[in-house]
Amino acid sequence: MPDALKALTIPDLAEMKANDKKIVALTAYDASFARILDEAGVDLVLVGDSLGMVVQGQPTTLPVTLSDMVYHTRCAARGVRRAILAVDMPFASYSGPAQAIDSAARLIRAGAHMVKLEGGQKRAETVRALVEQSIPVCGHLGLLPQSVHQVGGYLVQGKDEKAAQAILQDAIVLQEAGASLLVLECVPATLAAEITAALDIPTIGIGAGPDCSGQILVLYDMLGITPGKRPRFSRNFLQGVEDIPSAIRAYVEDVRAGRFPTSEHSF
After folding, report:
1. Where along this sequence does the record place binding of 3-methyl-2-oxobutanoate (predicted)?
2. Domain ranges (residues) in the chain
């Protein structure tokens, strides 16, 4: 594992999985929070399209534009020194390979090290096209927030055998297409463990149990400041500590030690 002060690379994440060292990830949308996360030892900072809900006050992530993501990427990039900076490609910005390359290029120029997109086999051609342009890709399976209207809400995915096998096959296809990382959101812990064991690339769980290669939460959720009900799979790490940096360090330590998530935060 590289020195703690050295900038991480995407191959380092694969090495962490191989060495059974948990990958710690969180979202951030500006320079100040990105710097706090970076200094606390977070390995991957995600500029998520979740900013539509927690920053802009939108009901879903769907209104977020590519220009929004470029702006917030530039901000967060100024706060990152060690961590890998991944960025969501927003809704309708990667409808085909050509559009995806143009969109991803804007995000990479803004400071992203990796782009994340939602979907399985139907995204394989797009993932290949991005990788051929030397753009690292993180896949996203399970609950897909950009498909919330199609699936009928923010629901756990892969609960029956047929659905679980479809997600597993999607994961394998994304790896074969060249994805370097895979987020698994709101899937049963047993399924996430099976996918993690089947892949060479790391998995990052959010509501996917303790056996993924790493964990991610929305920053506002884990600080207890998201309006409304906090997701079941999250935890308020600010409770009982004196300040935000302490909360972030507590999260890093608990993920590394395997103390978070527990069955309480899993499906």
Report:
1. 49-50, 88, 116
2. 10-265
As given in the structure block, the two tokens for residue 101 are 């390359």
Q: Which of 15, 132, 176, 185 is catalytic?
A: 185
Residue 86, beta-bridge partner list = 46, 114
- Listed residue (190, 1, 133, 149) closest to 62, CA to CA: 149
> Tokens 């962490």 appear where?
16
Percent of the chain as helix, strand, coil, to the nearest 5 = 45, 15, 45
Instruction: Summarize the annotated binding site for Mg(2+) as residue ranges.
Output: 49, 88, 118
For 49-106, the DSSP string reads: TTHHHHTS--SSSTT--HHHHHHHHHHHHTT-SSSEEEEEPPTTS-SSHHHHHHHHHH
264 carries an active-site annotation: no
Q: What percent of the chain has pLDDT over 70?
A: 99
Domain 10-265 classification at class level: alpha beta
